[in-house]
What does this fold into?
Amino acid sequence: MTPETWTAVDDYLTRLLIPADAALDEAQRAAAEAALPPISVSPQQGKFLHLLARIGGARRILEIGTLAGYSTIWLARALPPGGTLVSLEFDAKHAAVARANLARAGFADVVDIRVGRAIDALPALQREDPFDFVFIDADKPSTPDYFDWALKLTRKGGVIVVDNVVRAGALIDSSGKDADVEGMRRFLARLARETGASGSVLQTVGSKGYDGLAVVVVQGAS
Ligand code: SAH
Ligand code: DHB
Ligand code: MG
It folds into this structure.
């Protein structure tokens, strides 16, 4: 079993379960044309996020790390009429590509992309309605801080998902001092001692290589 097999199986599954999709295809084409890094979630991962948000009945979603809005489109499609999605993005160029992609997908009035460092935008969200679903996928060393904010901003019963937790197994390579991986270890240590949340990490293989996704439910102090 090789990365080539994972990708071939991913392609097979995507041909079956996610047939041609103009808005998503166009979003990835525009991202490539603008030379954005090819680091969005895969089609299967995007649909999985969408399904999690739908299963949870999410009406208000927060995303940290927009890039070209690929995961954002998947998440916005989970919302019922009147639902809202706030997505935080540091890079103004990424945000501009994402806004065009979201407009083409029909979500110009549903998604609110806020440009700037996420850590600066998060405190103001305390004064808005709580979120039902949070997707954390930005600068990895800040993941523990984003998780702390997500706990504050998510309603009881809400869900927090964190991308890129396993990084081809680097997670448990104790010789590694990679700041991204350190961020994930600190996030997991925080999750482990958090009595107000319960989580699991699913390892994944596919077109994005070998990685993993944390899924956390917020349950209030217990
Ligand atoms: N969620 C996207 C991929 C996000 S890639 C998808 O799956 O389609 C990570 C994004 O986080 C990049 O666009 C990067 O510019 C952004 N980012 C990096 N540091 C950030 C910060 N401090 N605050 C907000 N966004 C940041
Ligand atoms: C990479 C992948 C991601 O999903 C991400 O959010 C950031 C970086 C990467 O492969 O480098
Ligand atoms: Mg990611």
